[in-house]
Amino acid sequence: MTPPKPPKTGPRHAPHWKTDFSVDWDATDYVSRREFTRFLGLSSAGMAAGTVLIAGLASVGAQPVPEVPPLRLGKVEDFPPGSSSAFEYPQKGQYSLLVRHEDGTFSSYGQKCPHLGCAVYYEPREKVLECPCHEGYFNARTGDVISGPPQRGLSLVKLDIRDGEIWAVGGGGH
């Protein structure tokens, strides 16, 4: 068996890369830098105009947020210090979390983690709210991020204590 012959090169034979990446340079239309820059500028202007148009249409059609009626959560003594309880608020299918701290005060937040929407829960030993999906931790008194991937805190649910009963009276939107 004879070894393969090297490809022929020279004035009569084109280098192998020209056959591998063949381009008919005479028939190819070049795009100048000026044409390319004009295309980029017009495309950017078109996208900016579209964004402004969409934002304008969204603000014109914006509906006021309906007021949520207060929700009775129970009697204050139904919640022992160091405990937590989940409840549906501000609307059906959206959950919030009520925490009673060791000193008897209450805090309440939307239970949906702002990172990826996992449900947070109260960890009484550490006195934090935890998102188990990516180990996000929130301050149980303020709802602020302590550590982990969430970039913002939990949504606050406003509470009111009347006649020994605790009521959710606003907030908690996800």
Automatic annotation (TrEMBL):
InterPro entries: Rieske_2Fe-2S, Rieske_2Fe-2S_sf, TAT_signal
Record bears the keyword Transmembrane: yes
Highest taxon, organism lineage: Bacteria
Rieske domain ranges (all copies): 71-168
TM ranges: 39-62
GO MF annotation: an example: metal ion binding
Keywords: 2Fe-2S, Iron, Iron-sulfur, Membrane, Metal-binding, Plasmid, Transmembrane, Transmembrane helix
Pfam family, any one: Rieske
Keyword Membrane: yes
Descriptive protein name: Rieske (2Fe-2S) protein
Lineage: Bacteria, Thermotogati, Deinococcota, Deinococci, Deinococcales
